[in-house]
Write the structure tokens for this entry.
Amino acid sequence: MAEIPRLPLNSGATIPQVGFGVFKVDPADTQRVVEDALEVGYRHIDTATGYENEAEVGAAIRASGLDREDVFVTTKLRNDHHAAGDAEGAFQRSLDALDLGWIDLYLIHWPVPSADRYVETWRTFETFAEHGRARSIGVSNFLIPHLERLIAEAGTVPAVNQVELHPVFSQPELRRFHAEHGILTEAWGPLGQGKYDLFGMEPVRNAAAAHGVTPAQVVLRWHLQLGNVVIPKSSSRERMAQNLDLTGFELSDEEMAAIDALNEDRRVGGHPEEVS
Ligand code: NAD
């Protein structure tokens, strides 16, 4: 089984650089899919209260017989709980649903600027980390001005910002900001959510042919070489295994630059100023 690198977080913990996302995995299928992912070798699962499958993720991890310390679990505060000022209640409900003792990484799912509560919510998150109920805390879908405000008004810098990131939306400016502040970049939709013909793009196809791997592996390898954490999703065991098998080849500087040049600053998902 391929060895997955772990990256340091500013909390002192480490995170496996490749995880498994369960967005849109039906709750009825989630336990089986996550058990498959753990068997294939994933040790990092990314869920959210909004995905409505936290209990099934927890059940799969408990059923796996793996040591709890060996599986990294992320979940996220749902926007309506955030907007209502219910971070404490929502966090406890996630702890109860997962039933794994602690949460490795708890994220504010979206900044919801219309509610103007993310600084207050972040202060509540700091207490989760202080008491070890969440080992690391971070944010998701935050733009640079949101991060600047958090850093200026609160004591703790987020361990990660989990954002939409793939070749046509590769976020170079945000990644630079993260690097300057010790925030790890986590890429959601790392394969573009299948919403454009990423795997048919020439630099991706060429690199796949040159290394004898699939286009998906090329894109995920590009993320790893940029230093991103990735959490691709697939319900097929074969693709799960493929998406974890990324350390047997390396993209050249030219191949990296050709994929970087695909950036069009084009989102395929929602805009953080608008999602509520
Ligand atoms: P993704 O980019 O991982 O794309 C998933 C699609 O790619 C699926 O259709 C899948 O069938 C296909 N695919 C996966 N592996 C493949 C392979 N090897 N070859 C060909 N096709 C392949 O998109 P995603 O699921 O939206 O994102 C991944 C995870 O990110 C989610 O499951 C979730 O955990 C997280 N996420 C977070 C947010 C957020 O707001 N924080 C938003 C969306 C997703």
